[in-house]
Specification:
Elements lengths: L1 E3 L1 H5 L3 H11 L3 E3 L14 E4 L3 H7 L4 E5 L18 E6 L13 E4 L2 H13 L8 H8 L8 H9 L1 H15 L7 E3 L15 E3 L10 H8 L1
Parallel strand pairs: 1-2, 1-4, 2-3, 4-5, 5-6, 7-8
Amino acid sequence: MILAGGGALWANAGEEIRRLAQLLDAPVITTLNAKGLLDEREPWSLGHGRSARARTALSHADAMLAVGCRFSEVFTDWRRMSIPKSLVQIDLDPEQIGVNYPVTIGIVADARAAVAMLGQALASLPRASSWGPLLAQARAARQAKPEWLIETLREELPDETARLHRRLRNGLSHAGRLAVLWASPVLLPVELHHPRLGLSRGPWRGGGAHRPGRRLGER
């Protein structure tokens, strides 16, 4: 399993991670900062690490490649998240290696360059993956307590909701991109197709009910 964090986003490692996931037939989960780094319509993309999709896959993972991820308390639910014992961590900052979870191998390097080199090294090696049916099972998983408004609209007015979504994405977005404001950034099952599009409500963020979020909403 591959975990992409904010460091992978800032290193522009999305394409390298997508190629590695395709090569290994391995699922990709992200932190909130990297959500959308891999188009969440991709078969390997399971969205945020605490989503139902990701948690379903995590229960079957025996190894993880973490790219630019700090394993913060918020992301790991105060370290209650189940992380495989075989953990390879790539980070540009050596002080982040193994801070919150013990690592099997730590690599201090630029995320994009390191993932590209891993892909090149693994391309010629024999490999086998058992993720096929498990990936399909994970992608079918749904939140136990979904966000009530979005799920109600989807259930009661599926055609209208899909039509509204298409209009927002095609008509109000720039170059087909839509900025999504969510009240529950960790649990809300919103698929992102591009990174840097999520604005979460909270005293430490610029979206939601605060003035920057209102200004963006008005625009």
